[in-house]
Amino acid sequence: MGRLFPFYLWRPGKEQQDEVLKEGVREGFNYPNPGATEGATPSDLIALSSPWVVDYKRVQVGKGSKAYEEAKAALKRWTHFQLGWAQVRNPVGAGLPVSSPVQRFQFGHGCLKGHLLAGEESFAVEWDKEDDSVWYEVMTFSRPAHPVAMATYPLVRFYQRQYGKDSSTAMVKAISNSS
């Protein structure tokens, strides 16, 4: 097993981030079954059993094809992560489009060895053509994988729940601002 990712009390610079990412990619994922959130339901993830904690948030962000396209674009820009207290710098260039009476765009990412947590997050926008509603969804499974996360787990869980709320608010705001 590789070394643990460094824990910074400040936002690391781009060079530090690149170094940590490069080592994480070399070491690989820190959990079994990468891709488990693809096409999964919260019940599917709960069936993974302990010690995984499952979080799920779904909120309506608009109506119609224009709202769906705007929500998809916002998801690709990682609008749901640009919250001030949580940020990601790598936008997504691909996703999993799914078409049926429900059109869905989804992607996920997983934790690499050495990360504070083990697990995976999945993000989706969905357009239900039967009622024209557009939804944003975030689904995760995780557990502590670093001594800092274990020692501060109640705080970690607070921020995980807060992320679901704040990312949903950011997506609703992004769609309503573009209309």
From TrEMBL:
Domain DUF1990: 31-91, 102-168
Recorded superkingdom: Eukaryota
PANTHER family in alphabetical order: UPF0548 PROTEIN
Name of the molecule in the record: DUF1990 domain-containing protein
Gene source species: Dunaliella salina (Green alga)
Upper lineage: Eukaryota, Viridiplantae, Chlorophyta, core chlorophytes, Chlorophyceae
